[in-house]
Automatic annotation (TrEMBL):
The keyword Magnesium applies. PROSITE patterns: POLYPRENYL_SYNTHASE_2. Belongs to the FPP/GGPP synthase family. Gene3D superfamilies: Farnesyl Diphosphate Synthase. Pfam families: polyprenyl_synt. This is Polyprenyl synthetase family protein. It comes from Microlunatus aurantiacus.
Length: 333
């Protein structure tokens, strides 16, 4: 038991150290020839964030050949994490322009502060920095990064044009997989690759991360409806008319002959900028069975993510990945 706790403490120390190195590297990567560009490029990075993708890189880097308690070399882990997080941050600049967002992580968005053109170009600058870093890792990583970026773009295009003739829920889940889960899967795969993990381990970690990436987005969807219980501002996506798992499940099963369902359909198809209308829509959604169905889907997918860990070597890193499955379920309850 003592040896197990010592391994847990050692992993915690390694994760903390690696994440600190990654944070410093992110700020360095955002340095430009112009002070203004540096400030704009660091704007989202300095605002913080979950750093979920770097965390997965670090945890996956623990699954290399036995005998190295620190996992893969720190330099390779930092570079791999830098690639995925720079790609993620760069995509946020472009997303905010497309969404006409005014805030990002509680501060004015880059497009609000410097305008759309600068925000787009700063995103391009960060993508270039990510490309520069991934080239140092080798052609296999470049190829994987390119394929991931293609999925990101296709997911964004699909979200922009909408489901058209496709099933709206299936379309939404594919958008989530491409826009969100693909880069999270690549994060785990990068970590495993720099650690020299066996191919079977790489595949298991990538499958786990693709599923857990989808789960995180779907749990956020539930939180958008139930967030009075979590301390977050409720109804943000609802107000902006963004499809989410609960609203899509509601639309699939709504009974137009039911006064409550009919009223909620009317509200969802209207302008919810009025606080009273938003509160009414939230109230109707919260008592509808679609919320329980959405929570059940989060649990089902979390269990599926956990199943991919079964054949991985036992230890603190596998336990930490399993704990993430529990946390995504807990946060949406």
């Amino acid at each position: 038991m003592l040896a197990e706790r010592e391994r847990e403490v050692a992993l915690e120390a390694t994760v903390r150290e690696r994440l600190e190195l990654i944070e410093a590297a992110l700020l360095r990567a955002a340095e430009a020839d112009s002070a203004m560009v540096t400030e704009a490029a660091r704007h989202v990075i300095a605002a913080g964030g979950k750093r979920f993708r770097p965390l997965l890189v670090v945890l996956a880097s623990q699954f290399g050949p036995a005998g190295d308690p620190a996992g893969a070399p720190a330099e390779d882990v930092v570079r791999a994490a830098l690639v995925v997080e720079l790609t993620h941050v760069a995509s946020l600049y472009h997303d905010d322009v497309m969404d006409e967002a005014r805030l990002r992580r509680g501060s004015a968005s880059a497009n609000e502060r410097w305008g759309n053109t600068v925000a787009i170009l700063v995103g391009d600058f960060l993508f270039a920095r990510a490309s520069e870093e991934v080239a140092e890792l080798g052609p296999d990583y470049v190829r994987l990064q390119a394929r991931t970026f293609a999925r990101l773009v296709q997911g964004q295009i699909a979200e922009t044009v909408g489901p058209q003739d496709a099933d709206p829920l299936a379309h939404y889940l594919q958008v989530v997989a491409d826009k969100t889960a693909s880069l999270i899967a690549t994060s785990a795969l990068f970590g495993a690759k720099v650690a020299g993990a066996e191919l079977s381990v790489q595949r298991a970690l990538a499958a786990y991360a693709e599923e857990i990436g989808t789960v995180f987005q779907l749990s956020d969807d539930v939180i958008d409806v139930t967030s009075d219980e979590t301390g977050k501002t409720p109804g943000t996506d609802l107000r902006e008319g963004i499809p989410t798992l609960p609203t899509l499940l509601f639309r699939r099963s709504a009974d137009p002959s039911s006064p409550a369902d009919s009223r909620l359909l009317q509200l969802l198809d209207s302008d919810l900028s009025d606080d009273a209308d938003l509160a009414e829509a939230l109230g109707l959604l919260r008592v509808h069975h679609c919320v329980d169905e959405a929570r059940a889907e989060v649990r089902r997918r979390a269990d599926r993510a956990r199943s991919f860990l079964a054949d991985l070597p036992a230890g603190p890193a596998r336990d930490a990945l399993a704990d993430l499955c529990d946390s995504v379920v807990t946060r949406s309850v």
